[in-house]
Amino acid sequence: MIFCVNDCLIDTDAYELRRNGKPVPVQPQVLDLLILLLENRDRLVTKDEMIDRVWHGRIVSDSALDSRIKSARQAIGDSGTSQGFIRTIRGRGFRFVGEVREGGDSRSAGAAQPSPLVERDTMPLAAPSAPPPLPDKPSIAVLPFTNISGDPEQDYFSDGITEDIITALSRLRWFFVIARNSTFLYKGHAADVRQVGRDLGVRYVLEGSVRRSGQRVRITSQLLEAMTGSPLWTERYDRELTDIFAVQDDITASVTAAIEPKLLAAEGAQVVVTGRRQEPLDVVVAEIEKARGRAAARAVDIEDRTAAVELVRWTIKTFGRVDVLVNNAGYSSRARSIRWVPKDEWDRVINVNLNAVYTLTQAVLPDMIERGGGTIVTVSSAAALRPGLIGGAPYGAAKAGVRNLMGHVHTVLRGKGIRATTIMPGEVDTPILSRRPFVPDAKARATMMQAEDVARAVLLCATLPPRTVIEEIVMSPTIARDWSADIAVAARQGGPDNAP
């Protein structure tokens, strides 16, 4: 079998690699690795498979395997930075993702220079001589959304949606986003997303359509894996056109928030979610796996120190490491005033919001320090900065405590590559609000932040380059609401009826 990759030819029968028709000297193990990856380029190849095939099951260190992978990349003009042909899937293995031609015989193949396949029956644009290398972070092209309303004058609306999504994604520094001028070359053409991926050097393509009828609009969008054309996510949005710009902003925010976690999952992120009840955890895992991510759920009472430590040990044993720890547990007492908080409620709030963070943080640190880096993001609360009756005495004290704890980790361990961040959000519309003495109504909740807003802050902290750490983030709803009724009820909750 003959494989043509970039300007190279790998002949499995002659057992040689040639570049521009000339033999390239490579170690047998390096050539074996290349052949193994090429023959199985439709899937991920695990480290165990490589050891079985190339080293015949002998014990091999990670450094030896990494050295051969590095040599394989260099042999075909690739690198660990660009990963345009051999992509590392952290903790799992490797996959060949570059353009490949196969077939022919050694004589005919050696006489011609291999070039990328061109499949552009429907796209009358000139193809580049070689595909751009894939960036070292998730890369995406947003194709012009198609106006299927039957009215060419509505193009401005579909183009506006596309431009706004490109702008919003471009603000996310952990994504590489193709500029508008490049993607709008495909406007009006039935583009094969696989060819788009090769032309623009991206791993993902977002496409969609807009249909307007009177004062209603329907927008559909889907995120596709460029190499295979397989869908990762699809969604439909129906809106009333009371304000065109407001609808564009709403759709842009919805699409951006939806595809962020899908892209990270598709990039091979491995997630372990934990909580008290298994059922809601399984729902989260199913959502991640639907996006082709890898996830596991473990029902654990994090107030139980032994169980929390065992969770970390299991995670490291199962997935090999913990790169990012996100502490996001939240529990608040019914009584808010220090006058009326019973001791058992005080202890419970401190255990969940502070002691559990201490336990999990301490448990992940040895592995992170040994590997020379790691990220710990703890969701605290604005109550850490502005204590009062809204959060309550024990909750505010616990959240101030974790803020101080993360500050300690940052100050003491940053020299060992450990990044520690505290996120302090104001009111967020989450289930914990149901424990408030005065439960906010729908109107009040409409002014609050949403869980995905905090999630985006977590993603920012976790995906910045290791050289950069955000020490603290303070988040607040844009519109401040009236808390007077909440405070009046909270002041008396848990106390006697005749309390002054």
Defining key terms:
500 residues, alpha/beta, Arc Repressor Mutant, subunit A, Rossmann fold, 4 domains, 6-stranded mixed beta sheet, 5-stranded antiparallel beta sheet, 15 helices, 20% strand
General description of the model:
This protein is α/β, with parallel strands linked by helices. The protein has four domains: 2-111, Arc Repressor Mutant, subunit A, CATH 1.10.10.10; 139-262, Rossmann fold, CATH 3.40.50; 269-299, no CATH class; 309-492, 3-Layer(aba) Sandwich (Rossmann fold), CATH 3.40.50. It is built from 15 helices and 20 strands. The strands form five sheets. Strands 9, 10, 11, 12, 13 and 14 form a six-stranded mixed sheet that branches. A five-stranded antiparallel sheet has the order 4-3-2-1-8. Strands 17-18-19-20 form a four-stranded parallel sheet, with helices on both faces. The termini are far apart.
Report the portion of residues in β strands: 15-25%
CATH homologous superfamily designation of the largest domain: NAD(P)-binding Rossmann-like Domain
- Could you tell me the radius of gyration in angstroms? 27 Å
Number of domains: 4
What is the CATH topology of the largest domain?
Answer: Rossmann fold
Integer average pLDDT = 83
Counted by DSSP, the helix tally is 15
Low-pLDDT sequence parts: 105-129
CATH class of the largest domain: Alpha Beta
CATH architecture of the largest domain: 3-Layer(aba) Sandwich
Approximate helicity band = 25-40%
Shape: flat
**Main sheet?**
6 strands, mixed
Number of strands: 20
Structural class: alpha/beta
Termini Cα gap: 88 Å
